[in-house]
Amino acid sequence: MKKTAVCIALAALTLAGCNDTEKKAQAHLDKARAMYERNELFSAKNEIDSIRANYPKEYKILKESLALMRRIEYKEAERTLAFCDSMMPVKQHEADSLAKKFTFEKDSVYEEIGNYIWKQQTIERNLKRCYIRCGVNEKGEMYLASVYFGSRPIEHTGIKLSTKDGMFAETASIPYDGGVNYRFQDLGNTTEVVTYKGDNGIDAVKFIFTNEKERIKVDYTGGKPYVIYIADGDKKAIVETYNLATVLSDIENMRKETEKANKRMSYLKNKLDKS
After folding, report:
1. How far is it, in rounded angstroms, from Cα 211 to Cα 235?
2. Which chain positions lie within coiled-coil regions (predicted)?
């Protein structure tokens, strides 16, 4: 008889403990719902995370918290869309204004993405000279290029930029491949062009952008020594191209975020409808 009474007491204590755990989990869920209604989405997600971490066996509440999490993520996606919809026209107007100073080049047969070139830096205006040129494609991906023209090849693979105060930046070294590093000879003269895309040249671009008013020395590296100083017009071209690249990159990122948000909303709506 005593053994039976002990078992009943233990069962009662266990049930009470379970009820207490459920109440605590429910309290977190209720708090998360209230935060959701107040649009405190980050805090609401934290409350749901605490339910998952601390009450892994409260399956009913976990199921309800999953549904709430999906509603939170749906609302976050709506916010993203609203932000992109409001900012896209602003950024597009900014890009259009900046692009007026550039020439747009695109080979409709071979290229899917066109490039913006500063009007004073188009190739036909810069034959037979050593200089640093640049450009940016429609997605905001900027490139820098070192051009050498002379009677003898130097076979360079990169450049080092420096100012008189000792500050400097370097591009990556680009081995000769006949593509992003190519050379040709014409009438006894050699032309070399090495192109630095993305991370291969971004440090150099930012260095020029930051030091536009300074005299910038350029050492052609990887081959025979050769030095030039960036002309003021070329520094301006690089600075203006960087400005355009920043805006175009913002637009491209917003396009990607819009696409991602729409896909996420479609997925979440399907899940919520089923539940």
Report:
1. 9
2. 244-271
- Residue 167's domain comprises 101-256
Give me 93's structure tokens: 């107007």
Same domain, 138 and 51: no
Residue with the two structure tokens 């590296």: 221
Q: Are 107 and 227 members of one domain?
A: yes
Per-residue pLDDT of the chain (275 residues; tens, 9 = 90+): 455 544 443 444 444 444 788 889 999 999 999 999 999 999 999 999 999 999 998 999 999 999 999 999 999 999 999 999 999 999 999 999 999 999 999 887 888 899 999 999 999 999 999 999 999 999 999 999 999 999 999 999 999 999 999 999 999 999 999 999 999 999 999 999 999 999 999 999 999 999 999 999 999 999 999 999 999 999 999 999 999 999 999 999 999 999 999 999 999 999 998 87
155 & 215 share domain:
yes
List the CATH number of the domain containing 235: 2.60.40
Contact (Cβ atoms closer than 8 angstroms) between residue 136 and residue 118: no
The token pair at 271 is 């899940």
